[in-house]
Amino acid sequence: MTVMLIGITISFTIITIKEKNFSNLYEESMNIENIAIIKSSIKEKEKYNEFTVKIVDKTNKKGTNLVVNDYNKNNLEYGDIIKINGKYEQYSSYKNRGVFNYTESLKKKNIYGKIITSHIEKIDKKEDLNGIFIYLNRTIKEKFEKVFSKESSNILKALVLGDKQDIEKETMVEIQENGLSHLIAISGMHIGCIMIITKKILDIITYGERKKKIITIIILIIFIMTIGFISSAIRAVIMSIQAILAKLVYRKNNFKIDISIASLIILIYNPYYIIDEGFLLSFGATIGIIYVYPLFKKIKFNNKIANYFLQCLLLSISVNIFIFPINAFFFKKFSITGIITGIIAVPIIFAIEICGLISIFIPIQILNNFAPIIETLIKIFLQISKINLINFYMKVPNLLEIIIYYLIIYFVLKKNSRRIIKKVIVILILVNTISYLNFSKELRIYFIDVGQGDSTLIRTIENKNILIDGGGNDNYDIGKNVLIPYLLSKKISTIDYLIISHFDTDHVGRSYNSSRRIKCKKYYYK
Fold it and tell me: How far apart are CA 386 and CA 395, in angstroms?
């Protein structure tokens, strides 16, 4: 626990320092003329090529990363050292509290913005080890694309390589809204698949046990470097390596030490992971399995098949109990559907993952014969992801409420600490309750950032909520993605009065239908 707290302290200290650079180092529309090295593969878009560069010349911008939009589509590749000219642009993000901020998410990759290029000149090329892994990653993707349908190859790229960007938007929304997105994120189950396959192969080759463990560690390192350093995958790989090393040195594995060291390594590698939902969900789910699941494990059925499904359900409930505040904070919703459908989806995903990993090593001619089986499994999973039973939005908890929630869990798990924890919980609940009482009796007006359009929230002296317009965009659901998260972050689930000034798209648009997910008592149209 001490190690984890040290990691958290270091992370927030580094973030505080780096935030000043993110605010001051680049200015909108400033001219960029720097030497940089290409640090990603080249993504071909319709009108331009996109890639990430790292500034390497000796200026105050050295070491910063920028996304490049190359409209000339120069013939470039990873490792090329280039002289780049263009204009700097910030990524636009909605600035409302509780709404996903793309600019903030890029900070995890040390990306400061993008360059719209006017000229690129290739100067040299630098070969490094990472280039080999990027090539390997690209080769696997190309193999999937040749053998499988577009939809199936995109799912396989997510499951095997952690790359979800090519999954159709509608498909991804269905997976997320129905609580199954964690199944296509690289995590403990996926690393477990790699270890199972590795063990089976090494058992056939019959190396000594110590050699098998060392080879497994090497394979896990190669895997994490091939897929890129995804937070949930790093956690699973580090903890797996720690478990293997414990056996190598004949030491009993200690979960608390392992998870603390894993968190410290990840946060030193990238301090911004401390505010990354993938990092928090991965650690939260693991802790839920280790500490909460044993409370339910004794519940059993005599029938083996029935007991299997029961244990899967109890495991899913245990995980969701622990990550409930994290889901509420980041996603503002909870899916009972995911708990139920996950029981069926988990073994299917496990099978797809095993098949996907094996398919990397099978020649295309042979793989073509097995492709229909994998395609069928993926179609079944996608049909399951469409099931929508019970999903509901939640008011976003504040930090104090999250602390209270986890103290209650700690109180349940640690029976010998009941007296102290009880007192702490009562005090925190009182403080939290008092903080919600409206002593000021002031009229509050909030202008909501909905992009090109208008939306205003008024909270009256009597704590009535009045929403005037909701913004709108033909290509983007403002209501669902901006308005609802903003209202929930202010703990508003009911609008007393909704006033529509007029029916232009930028004032109501698609947001009107979405805003009805928030209860509204009265509607007015001007």
Answer: 25
